[in-house]
Amino acid sequence: MAPRSASSSPSWVPAPRRADARRNRVLVMQAARSAFEEAGLAVPLGEIARRAGVGAGTVYRHFPSKEALFRATVVDRVRLFTDTARELATAEQPGVVFFRYLAAVVRLSVRNKGLCDALEGNFEPSPGVEEGFRAALCVLLERAQQAGAVRKDVAIDDVMALLLGCLSMEQRRGPGVAPGRMTALACDSLRPGRRVTKLPQNPRATRNETVCAVCGGPVAAARTGRPARYCGGACRQKAHRERARARAGSEVVLEAEV
């Protein structure tokens, strides 16, 4: 019997299947991460499959339930935080690194209910995941304290509590408060002496240009240039005449005083 050629051998078939499975799992995780961040556990599994470009059966082959998929996305993000902290454990300027790391964790977690629950301890994503995060963060804290950037009397439990407080404050900040401002204020409580963070600037209050300044009617948004103040030419001319009369009146008053 002639030897079987390499092209007819079935040994090459499983490898592409394994590669496809890995690719599909990555797609499902990416889609689930964004879907859960937007809608939490209320998002249908079919919507996750649609975003990933796969069938619902493919999702179930990797994750037995939607809750298991949700848990996997949280584990993935917490482990990313942990790995990042470990990579920063030997970085220069440990004080700067510590505070920037805290701000980044808050910024990336504030809109993710699963992450907030995991950090609060209400949702244990996987055995040892929360402990690993605490241990890695503790190393950053100790290095920052040794560098004189953090008060010596601060413990890791204090930092974890402050981290949760920052999440809560950022979630509840008003529309006139800049993102990160509350976190900067809270983190300054960890600093020794008078070393404080320059606060992010709150957005400036803007004049309401959606209503005509003369008649109160709606104003179409201007495509270019300054925002429109009047609904049309008639109101613009009326406003111009009123300003002219006001200027004339002020000139009369000035002449009388002279």
Automatic annotation (TrEMBL):
Pfam families: TetR_C_43 (PF21597), TetR_N (PF00440). Signal peptide: none annotated. SUPFAM superfamilies: Homeodomain-like (SSF46689), Tetracyclin repressor-like, C-terminal domain (SSF48498). PANTHER family: HTH-TYPE TRANSCRIPTIONAL REGULATOR BETI, HTH-TYPE TRANSCRIPTIONAL REGULATOR RUTR. This is TetR family transcriptional regulator. Residues 22-81 form the HTH tetR-type domain. Residues 44-63 bind DNA. InterPro entries: Homeodomain-like_sf, HTH-type_TetR-like_transc_reg, HTH_TetR, Tet_transcr_reg_TetR-rel_C_sf, TetR_SbtR-like_C. GO terms for molecular function: DNA-binding transcription factor activity; transcription cis-regulatory region binding. Keywords: DNA-binding, Transcription, Transcription regulation. It comes from Streptomyces cinnamoneus (Streptoverticillium cinnamoneum).
